[in-house]
Amino acid sequence: MKKSLLVVLMLTVVGMFVFANTVMGQDAAAPAGGSGDLVATDGGGAVPATESSDSSGGFISVVLGGGPLGIILWLALFGAGGLAVYFVVDCKITVRESRIMPASLINSVTEAMGEGDLLKAIQYCENEPGAMSNVLIAGFSHVEEGYDIIQESVAMAADIETERLMQKLTWLSVVGNIAPMLGLLGTVQGMIAAFSSLGEGAPDVGVLAMNISQALFTTAGGLTIAVPCVAFYYVFRNTANKIILRMEAMTMELIKDLRNVEVVED
């Protein structure tokens, strides 16, 4: 799991960096005003327009221009993006009805309960561990205590499995809340640098524009990460709740034959 997380982080960082640098490189290469040459007033040949050294750097100049704090913020944003991709993929794999409620387990337990073989049903659950297996075992292990205790055990086990599932989903919400804060911190840093340059007298237009662009790019980066995270979090949460409710109903259906079990007191 740690190796896969590291790989996802590295690929996401590289992908975001290449994409951003490519986009900014294309913007910097676009001629301003639709003309790329200057015509001499004396009727001579066209003079090629010189490109700004700041624009040629593209996204790299934006990242490095923010200083140590700016570099740390961008690394944190790249890391948050990598974590977002990892958690989305992990939740997509985990929050599935076929994974939480395997059809093979349901069919096996149904067959065993139809035969009245409780030990066989427990063995099927132990052979195929998972959320539903844990809930069924919790009910089967209290069969001698009466049906009311069985229901309470099933409900308690279902709550535990729900909490385990929600803990994974919560990480998506955490990334979705942290990313815009990182972007806001970068915005504040860029605006502080911009107003500092204004306070020194006649500002350098290039430096002022770079400071403002740093502020806007960090804000855009944070929101780009946060919006999908929040959307995926609510989608996965609603899906998980539906599956858990269906699992509880299916569990009660499987153990309904235990209602007629008599409790023998020693």
Topology:
Blueprint: H1 2-29, E1 37-39, E2 46-48, H2 53-56, H3 59-65, H4 67-94, H5 97-100, H6 103-115, H7 118-127, H8 131-140, H9 147-199, H10 205-254
Antiparallel strand pairs: 1-2
What does this structure look like?
By secondary structure, this protein is mainly α. The protein has one domain (2-24, 53-260). Helices cover 78% and strands 2% of the residues. The chain has ten helices and two strands; from the N terminus they run H-E-E-H-H-H-H-H-H-H-H-H. The protein has helices at 2-29, 53-56, 59-65, 67-94, 97-100, 103-115, 118-127, 131-140, 147-199, 205-254, and strands at 37-39, 46-48. Strands 1-2 form a two-stranded antiparallel sheet. Strand 1 (37-39) and strand 2 (46-48) form a beta hairpin. Helix 7 runs antiparallel to helix 8 (131-140). The protein is rod-shaped and about 90 Å long. The model is unreliable at 1-14, 17-56 and 262-266 (pLDDT under 50).
> Could you describe the largest sheet, including whether it forms a barrel?
2 strands, antiparallel
Number of strands: 2
Oligomeric state of the chains present here: single chain
How many discrete domains?
1
How large is the count of helical segments?
10
Task: Provide keyphrases for this structure.
rod-shaped, disordered N terminus, mainly alpha, 266 residues, disordered C terminus, 10 helices
Can you summarize this structure?
This protein has 266 residues and is mainly alpha-helical. It contains ten helices and two strands; from the N terminus they run H-E-E-H-H-H-H-H-H-H-H-H. It has a two-stranded antiparallel sheet with strand order 1-2.
